[in-house]
Design a protein that fits this description.
The chain is of the alpha+beta class. It contains three helices and 14 strands. The protein has one domain: Clam (outer membrane lipoprotein receptor (LolB), chain A).
């Protein structure tokens, strides 16, 4: 009887491992049933179905020079506008960042400085000083990653994940996609020697308005040891945003800088 019970336990365990039923995901990645273009379309379609987003949670910035954590509010009117408001605690504002397809604005209470300019110059204020397009920033804030499926891109299956890999000049892009949710879980960029340059991670997926949305987003740059974490407590999708959600009063005595 004990042998029979043990065999049954092993069978149940094997079933859970094979189909990932114990982890809440039953689908097995297979390129024989779905084409790479269909996977990319699933990712894109989820993004297209998000019209607005409101998020609240904790923002954590880790750098060799200093660390910071504060409460954040995120408002997004896709595909045109996004707004971040950060508080250090006890209602003390740290600042805000607003951007749309033509311009950006940023206020830092620590410096009592207000910056504005064309969206093409906003990378001068973003963590890591990354050159990033508005669309790429929008995808990151929404917890996804935008990539084009090119003829040069290789698609494989590893550890029950779809892996998209593409060589880009002297670096390699690797995107890992969950087979059940068709959501991006990890993005890495490595140099010609295979050393990791940047890693972007998405975890704690929850279904919001029928769309799988990560409530944990983290960007890490190894060479500068900089890490940015968005840890959402709540996310609301496709609810009407009032105009005041994207407004912020800048003090009259703030130093003003316009980037050209």
């Amino acid at each position: 009887m004990r042998i029979l019970q043990s065999a049954r336990c092993m069978a149940v365990l094997s079933f859970c491992v094979l189909f990932s039923a114990c982890g809440g995901s039953r689908k097995i990645a297979s390129l024989s049933r779905i084409q790479p273009q269909q996977i990319a379309s699933h990712i894109e379609n989820d993004f297209r179905h998000i019209e607005t987003m409101q998020g609240k949670g904790l923002l954590v910035v880790e750098m060799p020079e200093a660390n910071f954590r504060g409460e954040m509010q995120v408002h997004i009117d896709s595909p045109d506008s996004l707004f971040f408001k950060i508080e250090a605690g006890l209602g003390v504002d740290v600042g805000f960042f607003f951007a749309n397809r033509s311009r950006f604005s940023h206020y830092s209470p620590l410096e009592n400085a207000y910056f504005s300019g064309p969206t093409s110059k906003m990378n001068r204020l973003i963590l890591f000083q990354m050159k990033i397009s508005f669309d790429e920033l929008l995808y990151a804030a929404l917890g996804s990653f935008h990539f084009q499926l090119t003829p040069e891109m290789r698609v494989t299956v590893e550890d029950n994940r779809y892996i998209f890999t593409e060589n880009r000049n002297e670096s390699t892009l690797r995107v890992e996609v969950h087979p059940g949710r068709y959501s991006v879980e990890k993005v890495t960029i490595t140099d010609a020697d295979g050393t990791e340059i940047m890693r972007q991670t998405y975890r704690r997926f929850r279904k919001v308005d029928g769309i799988w949305v990560p409530h944990f987003v983290q960007i890490f740059r190894k060479d500068t040891r900089e890490r940015l974490t968005l840890n959402y407590r709540s996310i609301t999708l496709n609810k009407t945003l009032e105009k005041q959600a994207f407004t912020y009063k800048v003090p009259e005595n703030a130093k003003k800088y316009r980037l050209k």
